[in-house]
Amino acid sequence: MNPVPERPRKLLLAVDAPSLLHRNHHARAHTRHRDRGGRPAWALHGMLRQIIESIDVFAPDAVIFGLDDRTTSYRRDMYPDYKAGRAEKDPDLVDQLDRAGALLDALGMATLTPPGLEADDVNASAATWAGENGWDCVIITSDRDSFAHISEHTQVLRLIDGGINGSPLLTPRRLLLMYGVPADRYLDFAAVRGDASDNLPGVRGIGEKTAAVLLAHMGSMQAVWADIEHDDGATLVAALDSWSEETGNRRIGASTLAKLRVPEARERYEFNLRLMSGRTDLDLGLTPDVPGTPGLLPLDIERVERVVGHLNFDATTALALRVLTGEPASAGRD
Question: How many domains are contained in the chain?
Fold first, then answer.
């Protein structure tokens, strides 16, 4: 991740808490770290440590954590096979997922568990809220779902191996370099490609490379469907064959058109689009004009010392006291 430049706008950090908990569970389970009550805490500690480090780097004005509704799912109701095939969750991970919201609330952070929805819906609403209020936004996640929210004022820190400093901070330019599609067309691209991690197949026969070329030369899937409907796909075929001639690749215009012409293709695309689209209208409960409300920094020193200290990792408590409150840990606090 490159150094973060000074900014003229306030910054909202939106955190995909379940994503980070899953990642830290698998990365740290070997430690078997427990809190002062003897309960599993390696995923909670890892998530919180990464967020504290992120706050240290980005210096946000507010932080909100998105959590999944673990009892009901709008997307699973629509598509029972949504996320099917994933391994059953380790009970120790389930325990920490269930405790995450209470821990963050006790710390004084803002959390939101939208009924029937997921953390990615909170991310989508956070990006929208930031744009409407003149703020910037950084979404922290280990998933690709939030790439659709990247814009001039929203970036995504995708946590991968290497932690905060070893993870890419994705901007519209970097996303274009990665996938060959502009940020405002990423959702179109994902709906065509599908998402194996969510058990969502894409349009049959069209992979990631062809989807990117298609959008680069047609602009949007709406333009693709309109061309097929009104001009029998003539513009599409010409554009893709022109790309083939320019790049020396085999001609793909006619074969791509044939794959898109079948009724199931548009149905699959539109179905994926509905499931993949994040809600942008959630009430985040952020009140930045009211000092001391959840999500605003700095946090209360006694709460930070008590809550982070309960996770039973002295170095993280000291870091939290410095970063979240602006006060260094005093001798003997832990």
Answer: 2
